[in-house]
């Protein structure tokens, strides 16, 4: 599957017939989390089922000389058991998390429940919180924890991961970036000036 950032994608609404799909565009949401160019917090793509994602391939078709912001941020999640505080690691491996995604401006949502870290496969899947000043496109809550406590858990986890291994890629024309979705988390800074057009290919 490939899609261009800034162009429409098609996503089924929860509870609707599979044939009925809603078109999500940058214009439709103001800043759709996939096709937009605003802030996108750290996350891993897909799920562990039909939409399991191994690699992301990003290629910059165009970028203005004066473009500012819009960096892709990457942090490693390898050896997570050895770097996270014991209490956070226990929560990741013993409590399910549910992420609620906002699909469109009309208030359609979908939910995904999953175990954040599976030691047997060393597989991390997480959707980290938006800043409190931003309108969230998703929110994650751990079973048995409040929304505020879940935010604290993820914020502390993100801080540990980004302190250990972190890079920020500023896009220029013809740049190619390959991200291992099973061994890292990634994010997007808002594009504050100029333009860039990045194509994404998902490898499952």
Automatic annotation (TrEMBL):
Domain TauD/TfdA-like, first and last residues per copy: 32-201
Needed co-factor(s): Fe(2+)
Gene3D superfamilies in the cross-refs: Clavaminate synthase-like
A Pfam family that the UniProt record links to this protein: TauD
Oxidoreductase among keywords: yes
Keyword Oxidoreductase set for record: yes
Keywords: Antibiotic biosynthesis, Dioxygenase, Oxidoreductase
MF (Gene Ontology): dioxygenase activity
Protein name stated in the entry: TauD/TfdA family dioxygenase
Species in which this protein is naturally found: Candidatus Kirkpatrickella diaphorinae
Organism classification: Bacteria, Pseudomonadati, Pseudomonadota, Alphaproteobacteria, Acetobacterales
């Amino acid at each position: 599957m490939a899609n261009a950032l800034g162009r429409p994608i098609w996503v089924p609404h929860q509870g609707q017939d599979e044939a009925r799909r809603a078109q999500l565009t940058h214009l439709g949401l103001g800043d759709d989390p996939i096709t937009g160019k605003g802030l996108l917090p750290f996350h891993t793509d897909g799920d562990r089922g039909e939409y399991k994602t191994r690699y992301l391939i990003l290629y910059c078709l165009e970028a203005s000389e004066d473009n500012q912001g819009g960096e892709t941020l990457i942090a490693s999640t390898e050896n997570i058991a050895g770097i996270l505080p014991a209490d956070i690691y226990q929560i990741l491996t013993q409590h399910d998390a549910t992420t609620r995604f906002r699909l469109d401006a009309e208030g359609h949502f979908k939910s995904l429940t999953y175990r954040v870290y599976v030691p047997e496969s060393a597989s991390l899947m997480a959707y980290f919180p938006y800043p409190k000043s931003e309108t969230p496109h998703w929110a994650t809550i751990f079973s048995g924890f409040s929304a505020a406590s879940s935010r604290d858990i993820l914020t502390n986890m993100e801080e540990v991961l980004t302190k250990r291994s972190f890079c920020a890629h500023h896009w220029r024309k013809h740049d190619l970036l390959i991200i291992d979705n099973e061994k890292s988390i990634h994010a997007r800074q808002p594009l504050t000036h100029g333009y860039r057009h990045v194509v994404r290919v998902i490898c499952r």
